[in-house]
Structure prediction request, 275 residues.
Amino acid sequence: MRSRLFNIYFVSSTALIASTAWLASFVVSQKTLRNWVFAFGKSGRWGVRTILNGTVEIRGRENLPTDHPPLIAAKHQSELDILITVSEFPDMTTVAMKALEKIPFFGRVIRKLGYIIVDLALPQDRTLQVVEGARKAHTEGRPIVIYPEGTLMALGAKERYRGGIWHIYNDLGIAVTPVAMSVGTIWPRREKRKFVGQTGAYEFLPPIPPGLGKDDFMALLEKVIETNTMRLIEEHASGEVLDAARDRYARGVGNEDLPWQAEEDAQRRQATQPK
Prediction:
């Protein structure tokens, strides 16, 4: 019952915030529009805490830099981690696919917020688009949040880490703060059913210092995020949920069918066909 009530609350509040954000985007500045992003995150977390009786532990804030905006590489495990991220960093930017611009209301808002828009139809320019967008955001003093796997992953699941994060890290010459999490124990990715009375964690890990080559950096980043994410899952999951997470983790990379892969492959083939 609480899960259903939360779903009603979340859909309703999101619709209200999204529609008013779209209207506001015509008249307010980017900085002011971030108040709607912050409200989206805080209202969702309020629902988790109040309706689901869920506890989200934010750990490791001391690992965030104090002399420059953070560059964060995070596990992407649940819609809940989006709520946490935008409420912690309402001025953040992240990578968004250009196709999202076509979504009513949402597309205009992400453009106004200055997210890094990447056109998958131009695969040869993708890295340049990401790096230039990140460089601009860093100059503006905005946190950058990157999801190296590029999609939501079930508890224990992992996918190939893509190298865009290294190109940003290398270009900016700053440390990367990895994020591990177990918030999928409260809100499993893309699931209508939520778990009541559950605890999950969102943990900022010690930063990876600048200067590593791509292979060393990517191997270290994946190891740090995946091992610590599994540590948190072991702490907060139990029963069949934990057994399933352990099984996915043991099977390694590529243990899920990811719809974005088929879509991306199709767009790449179309882009390379003769005109």
